[in-house]
Amino acid sequence: AAAAKMKVVEEPNAFGLNNPFLPQTSRLQPKKDPSPVSGPAHLSRLSGKCFSLLESTYKYEFCPFHNVTQHEQTFRWNAYSGILGIWHEWEIVNSTFRAMWMRDGDSCRTRSRQSKVELTCGKSHRLAHVSEPSTCVYALTFETPLVCHPHSLLVYPALPPALQQRWDQAEQDLADELITVQGYSKVLRALFEDAGYLRPLEEGESAQEGAVKDPVFQTLESCS
Predict the structure, then answer these.
(1) Contacts of 160 (CB under 8 A, 6+ apart)
(2) Which CATH superfamily, name and number, covers 24-154?
(3) What is the pTM of this model?
(4) C-alpha 135: how far from its chain's center?
(5) Which pLDDT band holds residue 25 (cuts at 50, 70, 90)?
(6) What are the sequence ranges of the domains in the chain?
């Protein structure tokens, strides 16, 4: 059988949470507020907008820098609606903004639902694909012309001058062998946290990308 036809809709910023036609008890209740808008300045224009994908009996809604929600499109009295993640932080790989992480969604067994939204070049803003590669973890693809330029997702140009200088100094220290590769990674993580791109790790939590798990000497002087 042919796959169900998908429809993409851009909607105002209701964020899937306050549909006036739903009774108060049915409205979604987020666990926390989203993180502040961060990252490349040209992407901030997506804040306050929502993009929907209708697939089979579900409507998925992605609101950049806010949340991801899912709504079952049936007339069942207990049709499912839920939050699949609230804007948390960027995933940064090779000094590039790779994806947006939406965390702390509705409870799912012993964990919270979370979504990873990858940004790809497209002719228009649209939520192109949604899947659930593992239980309670969702993968979304969002197409936008805002990321078509080869430098549009580079981290360094998005940083304020003071943080660019810190990065330059870390590069020089690494070249001069004053810090290790692991130490350099830790410097970058601290820098990205200060910029608001990453959230500080909570106690006992490890980084998703580029984590430095081994206790290493951060400078040659500390070896002596």
Answers:
(1) 195
(2) Mannose-6-phosphate receptor binding domain (2.70.130.10)
(3) 0.79
(4) 18
(5) very low
(6) 24-154, 159-198
Of the candidates 55, 202, 61, 181, the residue with the CA atom closest to the CA atom of residue 127: 61
What SS3 state is found at 20?
Answer: coil
| Residue that is written with structure tokens 């059988």 in the block | 1
CA neighbor of 119 nearest in space, from 85, 86, 149 = 149
| Mean pLDDT score, 196-219 | 58
pLDDT tens per residue across span 51-75: 999 988 899 999 999 999 999 887 7
Residue 162 tokens read as 């003071």
The size of the chain, in residues, is 224
Inter-residue contact 141 to 118 (CB < 8 Å): yes
CA-nearest of 189, 190, 100 to 138 is: 100
Burial 143-179 (b: 16+ CB within 10 A, else e): bbebbeeeebbebeebbeeebeebbeebeebbeeebb
> pLDDT tens for residues 91-150?
999 999 999 999 999 998 889 999 999 999 999 999 999 999 999 999 999 999 999 999
